[in-house]
Design brief:
OB fold (Dihydrolipoamide Acetyltransferase, E2P), about 35% strand, Rossmann fold, 7 helices, about 240 residues, about 30% helix, five-stranded antiparallel sheet, alpha/beta
């Protein structure tokens, strides 16, 4: 089988070191990265492919459970925590397993074997889809900000940054337009220009090569995007 690419998310260096050591002892596993919080994990997900996350539940800024819920398509997850009472919460997001600290290598192997079996099954059947996500988390300065999809008017690309215009405020964050397209549902958002993504039900009119948004903003339509936009709008119920 292919190597299982792993990410460790834990704010305790000792807990990180234990899981890292266990991964190194399994021939079909490799550690892609380790980080202390969800903010760092989001950065990794923008550039790396991950098959399995070892994630602590109690973390600063955003909990492990909330982080997994925020991912449009989460990898397999094994939660790790020192508190047994969080097990039910972890299983509510379809975690493969729950490891209670301190974790033994034997117990670690049992969890990993479950993941290995699921990955093998994936070659014959699709993994059950996660519940739909109606928000995203983006990095603003030194914090993660939750933005509900239905508050977004449009998004403007600014090289390696984007400007997200919402009903409450404008957020500037370091992410590419391509990555945002992957995070946002295609049924709700559409790219209308190389520099603009729009929430479809925020469009009030199309005049020539411009659209008008409910907040009265006017946005250009790229020539290569116009026909696609018209077709999508025609098929909205």
């Amino acid at each position: 089988m292919n190597v299982i690419r792993c990410l460790i998310i834990d704010d305790e260096p000792l807990a990180q070191a234990v899981i890292e050591n266990f991964i190194q002892r399994v021939s079909y596993m490799t550690l892609v990265a380790k980080c202390e919080n969800a903010l760092e994990a989001y950065e990794i997900f923008q550039h790396k492919s991950i098959d399995l996350i070892f994630c602590d539940i109690q973390m600063p800024q955003i909990s492990g459970v909330e982080f997994i819920k925020s991912l449009p398509k989460a990898p397999y997850v094994i939660f790790t925590t020192a508190f047994a009472e969080y097990a039910i919460e972890g299983y509510n997001v379809d975690a493969v397993d729950f490891l209670l600290k301190p974790v033994s290598f034997e117990r670690f192997l049992r969890s990993v074997h479950k993941v290995k079996q699921l990955i093998n099954l994936d070659s014959h059947a699709q993994k059950p889809e996660s519940p739909p996500v109606n928000h995203l988390f983006v990095k603003e300065d030194y914090r993660l900000m939750k933005i509900d999809h239905d508050t977004i008017f449009y998004i403007q690309g600014l090289k390696d940054y984007v400007k997200i215009i919402t009903t409450q405020k404008t957020v500037v964050t370091h992410i590419t337009m391509k990555r945002l397209e992957e995070l946002l549902p295609v049924s709700t958002f559409h790219r209308i220009h190389k520099s603009f993504i729009v929430r479809l039900d925020a469009i009030t009119s199309i005049v020539g090569n411009e659209i008008e948004i409910v907040n009265k903003s006017k946005i250009p339509i790229g020539l290569t995007y116009r026909d696609s936009l018209i077709n999508v709008l025609k098929n909205i119920n």
